[in-house]
Prior knowledge:
Elements: H1 3-19, E1 30-37, E2 43-52, H2 60-66, E3 71-74, H3 82-99, E4 103-109, H4 110-120, H5 127-134, H6 148-161, E5 171-176, H7 180-193, H8 198-208, H9 215-223, H10 230-246, H11 253-275, H12 279-301, E6 307-310, H13 313-316, H14 332-340, E7 345-360, E8 367-372, H15 380-387, E9 392-395, E10 409-412, E11 428-431, H16 433-436, E12 439-446
Parallel strand pairs: 3-6, 3-7, 4-5, 4-6, 7-12
Antiparallel strand pairs: 1-2, 2-9, 7-8, 9-12, 10-11
Helix pairs in contact: 1-5, 1-6, 3-6, 5-6, 7-11, 8-10, 9-11, 10-11, 11-12
Amino acid sequence: MNMQERKKRASWLLALVCLLAVSCKQAPQQEGQVTGGAQTGNTVTLTIPNHPLRSEQDLDVLLQEIGDARIVLLGEASHGTAEYYTWRAAITKRLIQEKGFDFVAVEGEWADSYRVNQYIKGPQRDSATTVQLLEQYNRWPTWMWGNYEVASLVTWMNRYNQEKPKEDKIGFFGLDVYCLWESMTELMPYVKEHPELVESAREVHRCFQPFSSDAMEYARAVANASANCRAETNRLWRDVQKLGKAEGAAKSEAQFVAEQNALVAYNGERYYRAAVESNTESWNIRDRHMTQTLQRLLAFHGPQSKAIVWEHNTHVGDARYTDMASSGEVNVGQLVRQEYGQENVFIIGFGSYQGTVIAARGWGAPIETMEVPPAQQGSWEQILHQLSPSDKIIFSKDLKNNKPLNRPVGHRAIGVVYNPQIEHLGNYVPSVLPKRYDAFLFIDQTHALHPIETITVRNEPPDLYPSGK
Length: 469
């Protein structure tokens, strides 16, 4: 595809994305009732106050409920649904414009996302250039951040920043832990400027060299007791930290980025070492790393800074109110509530009744547009569809006295690997919804995300392993 064709395709798809979540009218709160059979066989009638979700104006009530929260977590029930991305973008723009939020932090890799951060803070660029930028997200699943919905937001952020002084420009950062080798590569220019780091950096490279940038190959070697780079990555992380403290309290951005790349190497090694032994331990290392990165970003941006987080519902919805708790798993939503106080954190979950989604049949498999079947009987999504087959906003405060919904109810979660035919066997998370989230956006009928074509796809290390979320 030549540049002219690329620009034409980008413009058409971005225009389509902009139309997905628009309408005109505002409507008042509604009260709906739904009747269904409880597990006991008794009939239960639920009253669920809700607000229509038809246009960006309908977000007024949501912005009001968010109030002065410092951290807003925006979930998604899949990584491949267009409406989740477009509505999160609409909320994000309003939080930035009306409430002064400072940055967006996503369930993406640090190194790739930091290049997006630099792009949006640079000179004004067009949408075709944005699409080219997002092609760098070439590790499977490429479509999570390499899609036209994200391109539309990134282009908007770049334009928004043009009138802002350097210190007020909004940022875009990745919270995840996977890009161990890439972070080490990004760290090298900084190491060359600080000879005291050369030896510890060389030891890390020497330790990882036999595994040819294949993190799962390293993990398997750990399992066979033939490798362990824990001491080397720990030493590098401590040395970079020590250097930052020696340079004074006012940490430069270059120092912050160097520390983050060293932290990714340190926690990435821990994650892959744990991945071959314990899903719970590797999950917890990953979510604690994402929380630590968010904490570091907030501290770096100052005591008044405010963050918007984009991640799957399984990361943002408080784990204490799902079956994750019984498995000993924690997540970002739980950890930030505990760290910053529930009054300073606002969590928004997303879900839908049926539609289409981008996913794959197996790890590294070609992406497909799949049909999402009607939600399982008795699930949260089926209840909201039965209430009315329309898009709506629900607030947890309105459900606090609703006893049937303050017990575990199945809540659909779709990963990057998906089989619609057997989703009833493992795609529903028992959740106490009014406690897991502060608000919930329900999209009755959804459409698949619009992925950006990536010529070369890196298959290792596989993102989101082993959960798909």
